[in-house]
Design a protein that fits this description.
- It is a single chain.
- By secondary structure, the protein is an alpha/beta fold.
- 34% of the residues lie in helices and 24% in strands.
- The strands form two sheets. It has a six-stranded parallel β-sheet with strand order 2-1-3-4-5-10, sandwiched between helices.
- Helix 1 links the parallel strand 1 and strand 2.
- Helix 6 packs parallel to helix 7.
């Protein structure tokens, strides 16, 4: 596919703005729409000017259905309710969707899996290349080390982050639990909030006499936003299914 038309939902948020700024410079991706909640102070403002770029004559909207026809991929960094509402619209119009939203209940995750029967959906709490490698390393380490190694997960984020633990920390706990045939509640996760920390995740395997630490530190949101761009290029050419890993990492088969 030569050009990929994208809509960014959560356009004015921290992640939405970084995705938009990087997509602006990308030769393959074209921003054809930006979404925010109803009553947002920048509603109907030009989406180019919102991120400090030249005027596009494309305006911030609050209704996906108004603009979805011209898109190939919708990328979602909002909240579970908005994401699921947009997912239903994407299904009706047979559009691919990238979901970076976190905080879904098991029932809501089931709705996303169901949508994968009709459209391609990529969902991950973190789309950076480094974090996806951390996922794989955590899985392999948890499999190879026996129960004598206790596991602790620590995550640190800026003081304005709403959810705790982070979606990435929850994913790491799920990986360890699955590798060790445990319940996710059996895995200790510690959350710290303060300052302007973009994101730090540490998985510690410790036993008598030694300790192994797997650590990822994000220096800027561009690590996540750049990964989201990679995902959009990947999912645009896929058949229906739910995907959970970046193309440049070993990709799980669709469910």
């Amino acid at each position: 596919m030569e050009n990929i038309n994208i809509i960014i939902s959560g356009y004015c948020g921290k992640m939405g703005r970084r995705i938009a700024a990087l997509a602006w410079e990308d030769k393959q991706l074209k921003i054809v729409g930006g979404l925010e909640n109803k009553g947002h102070p920048l509603s109907n403002e030009d989406i180019g000017e919102i991120i400090g770029k030249e005027k596009l004559c494309v305006y911030l909207k609050d209704n996906l259905e108004e603009i979805i026809k011209q898109s190939d991929v919708i990328v979602e960094f909002t909240n579970p309710q908005a994401t699921l509402e947009h997912l239903e619209i994407a299904k009706r119009y047979k559009k691919a969707m990238v979901i970076g939203t976190t905080g879904f209940t098991p029932q809501q995750k089931g709705e996303i899996d169901k949508a994968g029967e009709d459209i391609p959906v990529f969902i991950s709490p973190n789309m950076s290349q480094g974090v996806n490698l951390l996922f794989d390393l955590t899985k392999e380490t948890a499999r190879r080390l026996d129960e004598n190694y206790d596991v602790e997960i620590i995550e640190i984020h800026h003081k304005f982050k709403k959810d705790a633990p982070s979606g990435t920390a929850k994913k790491l706990a799920e990986i360890v639990a699955e590798a060790r045939d445990k319940k996710i509640d059996d895995i200790s996760v510690h959350s710290l909030r303060g300052g302007d920390v973009v994101g730090e995740h540490k998985v510690i395997f410790v036993t008598e006499g030694e300790r192994i630490e797997l650590v990822h530190k994000a220096h800027s949101r561009d690590a996540f936003a750049g990964g989201a761009l990679e995902v959009m290029r990947f999912i645009a050419g896929k058949e229906k299914g739910v995907y959970t890993q970046l193309a440049r990492m070993p990709v799980e088969k669709p469910q």
